[in-house]
Amino acid sequence: MLNPNEIDNFYKQFIANLPDLAHDGILTVDLSLLHDLKLLNDPDQIKDDPEDLTQYFHVIENTEKVTLFNEQFLVWIVPKTEQEIPLTYVLIALNRPGKTSLEVVFTTSGVYNTPKYVLKVLQYYLLDMLETEAALTSIEKNQ
After folding, report:
1. pLDDT tens digits, residue range 77-92?
2. Pairing state of beta strands 58-61 and 99-109?
3. What value does the CA radius of gyration of the chain take, rounded to a whole number of Å?
4. How many CB atoms lie under 10 A from the CB of residue 139?
5. With contact defined as beta carbons under 8 Å apart, do 53 and 141 qualify?
6. 120: closest CA among 65, 38, 23, 21?
7. What is the secondary structure of 48-100 as a DSSP string?
8. Which DSSP symbol is given to 114?
9. Fewer CB in 10 Å around end: N or C, the chain?
10. How would DSSP label each residue in 5-41?
11. Distance between CA 18 and CA 37 in Å, rounded?
12. How many whole angstroms separate alpha carbon 87 and alpha carbon 79?
């Protein structure tokens, strides 16, 4: 497992090169995105479930950001203020042996800048990335 200094170095690399590394751009959480991701169907979707994926992270918190990490993922939750508007950036990186890559970056603001929406969207992308990795591994094994 990476140590906190390595994790912070990845963060600095990713944030310094965000336009180049965020291959899908910076996604803005709004009503349209929540609808597209089908996160509006069940308002009680996030529950205190001990099997919940987001419960399996180590946490490092400082004044700049909250870092969540485990063997597979590095996640940075970064509160910012831009033009006097509070917003939150979330960077999700996939941590593979020998290669850590930034996969998803999204931002929340306004009514969507709440822990409920940040965690709901974060959980969606983590599960989606797990499914994608499982599919790629299956394809590689079959070749």
Report:
1. 999 999 999 999 999 9
2. unpaired
3. 15
4. 9
5. no
6. 38
7. --TT-GGGS-EEEE-SS-EEEE-SSEEEEEEEEEETTEEEEEEEEEEEETTEE
8. S
9. C
10. HHHHHHHHHHHHTHHHH-TT-EEEPSHHHHHHTT-SS
11. 23
12. 6
Stated as kind and residue range, the H or E segment containing 133 is helix 115-142
Task: Name the amino acid, one letter, at 85.
Answer: I
Give the model confidence (pLDDT) of 27-66 as tens digits. Answer: 999 999 999 998 887 655 545 454 555 568 999 999 999 9
CB 74 within 8 A of CB 93: yes
Give the burial string for 115-135 (b: 16+ CB within 10 Å, else e): eebbebbbbbbbeebeeeeee
pLDDT at position 45 is 52
Coil, helix or strand at residue 122: helix
Chain centroid, CA 109 distance in Å? 16
